[in-house]
């Protein structure tokens, strides 16, 4: 039985790492059929729209998408397409695993945690953004809801229970931001009471960041609001060797998008230098999601074995290999 997924090749190095990832998935023989869809600068050039209606229709129809990085301007320009996709499909759970891999630049050998980030509200909603006429004052509102907090915390506990993890840490700033962060923490405590089999811990965000760089092994599942989750998940990627090893899943009730969370790296685009591991690990998350955990584990083990062998590694991992050569080395170990 085949399953069709939407494939978004993205900008910059996106097409290269997508080609490498699809090569490995084809060798894995998991019964996937690909429906290409455009987004980002490529879509703007071809369709005059950063996010064409046909792409949204494809994701809605297939319910699963694999996505390479898309260009997001800093400080101005168009709204982040990633944020727009999350809101459009109500992809409320951003799931970012961080796991130590061999022969990387990681400073730790014992990291194995997951950050579960609320993906649709909080600071990223940025209601009422405005800058005063004189350019001296800027304002942006933040909104947290009981519904949004409850479903993300429940997702974290269900994830912990279904994957055999033992602890959930709710990260907040309720000591200072008593309204929005306070509501999130209060709801987290209420939800935690329904999961007596899972240890519950609450931790202020600044202390969390310190603890992560001192003793990351103490964490299992971290659940938090949008902005804090964005920062913490990248910090966790730094613990295990960088964003080249950081996958991400965006999960909603009716759709899911799996992605490499790093940028488009236009400075090396088209040169075969890009590390495809983040997108390959996102593909493993996708296989878990569609009910193929055995194949997801086969893929992860092949990546680990290739890293252990230092076979065709890309430059960021200390090797001299290229993108497709690295993918071929991984495929040979499936």
UniProtKB/TrEMBL annotation:
<dbReference type="InterPro" id="IPR019818">
    <property type="entry name" value="IsoCit/isopropylmalate_DH_CS"/>
</dbReference>
<protein>
    <submittedName>
        <fullName>Isocitrate dehydrogenase</fullName>
        <ecNumber>1.1.1.41</ecNumber>
    </submittedName>
</protein>
<dbReference type="InterPro" id="IPR024084">
    <property type="entry name" value="IsoPropMal-DH-like_dom"/>
</dbReference>
<comment type="similarity">
    <text>Belongs to the isocitrate and isopropylmalate dehydrogenases family.</text>
</comment>
<feature type="domain" description="Isopropylmalate dehydrogenase-like">
    <location>
        <begin position="4"/>
        <end position="330"/>
    </location>
</feature>
<dbReference type="GO" id="GO:0000287">
    <property type="term" value="F:magnesium ion binding"/>
</dbReference>
<dbReference type="GO" id="GO:0051287">
    <property type="term" value="F:NAD binding"/>
</dbReference>
<keyword id="KW-0560">Oxidoreductase</keyword>
<dbReference type="GO" id="GO:0004449">
    <property type="term" value="F:isocitrate dehydrogenase (NAD+) activity"/>
</dbReference>
<dbReference type="GO" id="GO:0006102">
    <property type="term" value="P:isocitrate metabolic process"/>
</dbReference>
<dbReference type="GO" id="GO:0006099">
    <property type="term" value="P:tricarboxylic acid cycle"/>
</dbReference>
<dbReference type="Pfam" id="PF00180">
    <property type="entry name" value="Iso_dh"/>
</dbReference>
